[in-house]
Amino acid sequence: MIRKPYFLLSLLQAVLSQEWKADTPRDVRAQKGLCALIPCHYSYPSNLANKHRDGVWFNTEEVRPWAPLAFHSKDHGHESDRFRHRTGLSGDLKDGDCSLIINNITAEDAGPYFFRVEFDNGENFNYYPATQLHVSDFTDKPTIFAPEIIEGKSCNITCTFNTTCRGTAPDLTWDNPTDVPGSVSNSVTQHGGTLTYSSVLTLVPSPKHYGQTLTCRVSFPSVSSQRTLALTVQYAPRNLSITSLDMIKDSSISITEGNSTALHCSVESFPASNLRWEHLGVTVNRSSSNNEVRLELPHVTSRVAGEYRCVAENEHGAVESSITITVERRETHEWKGALLGVGITLSGTLAGFLIYICVRKGRNTGKGHSAQAVRAGIYSPHEQSDKPWKDEEETLGIETDRYRNVFQADNIYENCNLDEDSIYANV
Fold first, then answer.
1. What kind of architecture, by CATH, is found in domain 235-328?
2. Which residues contact 135 (CB under 8 A, 6 or more apart)?
3. Gap between the Cα atoms of 353 and 265, Å rounded
């Protein structure tokens, strides 16, 4: 009987203590420059439901003198200087929502936080345990969603950034090349406790935009980050080109029979085109890699002559071009070369023969002048015997210098009156 009052008192205290409780996490993580949200829902005795109350958040493990105040709903002047104008409640205390928001988080904001409620009738309660706030560097980046980007078709490229904090809203902006004009629209949506900020860039791409970059930047008062997208514009084949090691003239090449040749066809497109070579309506070679195809034609014959078409196509269109191969018969080519060689040989032979005749006549004329010189006493018979004339086939030019004065008045070629035209007249 003596123990019964103590049992009832303990039960009453337990019931009352259960009415003073809060639902808060043990740990919360936030990044520098963003905002932190410490979720909090509290309860209190029902007899206080209609009483005015104020909420206080301490930046400490428990109440102690001069403990820093992060938030005070009644008088913001009680807040520590470093928290002033950066903190607030995300809900209404009357609804049991005591969630704390801290904007523009710094490394100094890390530490324990607990909530205290103060009623007008003087009843107060501190809700433990405290929540530990962990602060890390800012690493979050926006996300870019892009549909298929097709030449000439309007498309929407969306940049989003998610946050669970209802503090300072981020700014989403686009950095795009001046030759990629577009319009921008921004919005914010909420899914549960997550806020999604979106920026939509609408543009009409062209092939020249392929490979250019678009950058979406998210900015807070003290930090920012960005994500970049390289445009992959899909477009139909264009700028088809046919090349060859042999000279191409007026979309045609001439090949001597028996020789080899090769044709190379390339094109620009995305995605890659299927390319093929056609001759007389039949596909003779094809390729589906890196926008090019090569056609080898070894030991050319007259049967390979004609038009060759290169066709390139992908899902967005097709383009083609052609080249004509003419085959020259080897017999004709060799006959022309042989004829030219014979002509050159005959010309040289005839010219040499005519020059020989001229020189021979000149020698005979020189001998006549020598006899006249003997009779005139220019030199004695003894001298003649000392320097006799040898056979004319052996002596041409040996003694000429000695008697140059005798012959200089006469032209050794005086009987050879042939000009250049006469020599080559029959060539």
1. Sandwich (2.60)
2. 29, 30, 31, 32, 36, 105, 106, 107, 109, 110
3. 58
Q: Which has the higher per-residue pLDDT, 415 or 324?
A: 324
C-alpha closest to that of 62 among 115, 107, 20: 115
* Residue 208 or residue 142, greater confidence: 142
Contacts of 422 (CB under 8 A, 6+ apart): 354
Residue 179 has pLDDT above 90, yes or no: no
Nearest to residue 101, comparing CAs of 74, 132, 71?
Answer: 71
Which residue has tokens 């005591």? 98
What is the model's pLDDT at position 358?
56
Task: Identify the CATH assignment for 19-136 out of 3.40.50.1010, 3.40.50.2300, 3.60.10.10, 2.60.40.10.
Answer: 2.60.40.10
pLDDT of residue 394: 43
Query: What is the residue-wise DSSP string for 264-290?
Result: EEEEEEESPPEEEEEETTEEEEEE-ST
Helices (H), 3-138: 4-19
d(CA 312, CA 236): 9
Grouping H, G, I as helix, E, B as strand and the rest as coil, residue 95 is helix
